[in-house]
């Protein structure tokens, strides 16, 4: 499977079956992570983690504290696409795979700025 990223006219294809999406909360300044899988049905959110709580980012009741992170499994249907907007107060989204994290600007090859980035499963 492949993941397609599109932003401000740039399109990038990443050959991967799973990735972690990471960002820093704009108010609390703590990291949030989500593990995603790329499937023929769409993008599937498997698990979420947050380093803290507050300001609208409270972990759900089923979350468990493991290694300093509140973690929980997510049960939602696959999404056809995911739209990511950037906040000047929080820094950039980061996509991690195989232990390596890169900002969307690094992946797309240009500063993303406030442009929305669309993530989706690439058409075969």
Ranges where pLDDT stays below 50 over 5 or more residues in a row are none
Encode the helix/strand succession as letters.
EEEEEEEEEEHE
The average pLDDT is 89
Measured by DSSP, the beta-strand proportion falls in over 45%
Description:
The chain is mostly beta strands. The protein has one domain (2-115). It is built from one helix and eleven strands; from the N terminus they run E-E-E-E-E-E-E-E-E-E-H-E. The strands form two sheets. The chain has a seven-stranded antiparallel beta sheet. The radius of gyration is 14 Å and the shape is globular. The model has no long low-confidence stretch (mean pLDDT 89).
Main attributes?
single chain; 124 residues; mainly beta; 7-stranded antiparallel beta sheet; 4-stranded antiparallel beta sheet; globular
Quick structural summary:
By secondary structure, the chain is mainly β. It is 4% helix and 50% strand.
Secondary structure blueprint with pairings:
Layout: E1 2-7, E2 10-15, E3 18-24, E4 31-39, E5 42-50, E6 64-66, E7 69-73, E8 81-84, E9 94-97, E10 100-103, H1 104-108, E11 117-121
Antiparallel strand pairs: 1-2, 1-11, 3-4, 3-9, 4-5, 5-7, 6-7, 8-11, 9-10
């Amino acid at each position: 499977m492949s993941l397609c990223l599109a932003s401000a006219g740039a399109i990038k294809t990443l050959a991967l079956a799973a990735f972690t999406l990471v960002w820093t909360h704009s108010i609390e300044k703590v990291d949030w992570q989500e593990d995603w899988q790329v499937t023929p049905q769409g993008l599937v959110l498997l698990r979420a983690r947050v380093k803290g709580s507050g300001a609208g980012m409270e972990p759900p009741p089923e979350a468990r504290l493991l290694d300093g992170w509140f973690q929980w499994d997510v049960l939602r249907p696959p999404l056809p696409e995911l739209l990511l907007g950037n906040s000047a107060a929080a820094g950039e989204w980061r996509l991690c795979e195989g232990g390596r994290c890169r900002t969307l600007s690094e992946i797309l090859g240009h500063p993303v700025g406030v442009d929305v980035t669309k993530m989706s499963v690439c058409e075969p």
